[in-house]
Amino acid sequence: MLRLARHFAALSVACLGFTATSLIAQSGPPSSPPPSDEPVVSQPAPSQPSAAKQSHKDNDKPINQSAIHNASIWQDPGDISSKDMYFGAGGQAGQPAPPFTFVSEDMNGTNPKFNARDANGTRWRVKLGTEARPEVVASRLLWAVGYYVNDDYNLHIATVQGLHMKRGDKLIHDGDQIIDARFARKPGKDTKVAIWEWKTCPFRDTREFNGLRVMMAVLNNWDLKDVNNAVYTNKKTGRQIFLVSDIGATFATNTLETSRAKDKGNVNSYVDSKFITKTTSTTVDFGTPGAPTGALLKSGGILAADYFHRRGFEWIGDNIPREDARWIGDMLGQLSHQQLVDAFRAGNFPAESIDEYVTVLENRIAQLKAL
After folding, report:
1. Does the predicted model carry a pTM greater than 0.90?
2. Which listed residue, 101, 155, 189, 205, has the most CB atoms within 10 A of its CB?
């Protein structure tokens, strides 16, 4: 059925003629995705830079293979069963400290964002909207099994002095109050130097790289554009870390939908989504990431460019060695029921949806462990 749907989708796009061609021309080639939602890595300019200048400032160019050295994509997580899944990698002491002061708006990405400074002088990138909850939970789970993440927190209510934004007016209350906002801080004292590409990742075909692919399926992270990956470096040690830095398109569907309310942080979509789609004696395929066939058809072909671009991500969830998928399952299996609950509590998900999320997640972990 999926193969048939793909052929039908491709046919419908072909029939659009000038409409699809015009859309692609306006949207730019698939190899030029929009900038990512990255935590603050440098001092803001006095005025809002253009999209091109800000993309350059945030170092959104792929890392040159010759510049890779002392690199890591995973570290031994230690005692997983003792991890604090509520406060995560930054810990309780690393929480954002009010009061907050607005610094500048960030126009990159699709979600309203801004840079702020807390009472300790720490810089944060604050994201509003549908990604703010799931991104925090996703960071907790990736960190638990040894992958690098930003220090993410979700603040249910926060007041930001001097808040002034062009986007997201509906998400701001009483002029300076925000609700369920994600506060992100880059790892340690590292600096972002580039992005990394899935197809040319220096860790490709390793157990750790394959494990990261499995985690994307566990989380239903369908937005796997290369620009959502980051390379950070520590100037003192020279160490480079590779991470998936934008993980907000999670815990909902397997792919892009026409409604943001369905494809990010939607428990009903997560419950109904596919996980393992195929197994052989040596490999396993997952439902995430999937091409947005349904969205393409519902849009009448308007999402043609996005459809063909995202079809190029599907390999990330396919042909993963069973033993590598089982390795991730064994690590996730060390998390207790309460730890999983705490991860979703950290994202400020409603209590009634947390039980459903955890039930699905525990079922997925069991499937991985049984491979």
Report:
1. no
2. 155
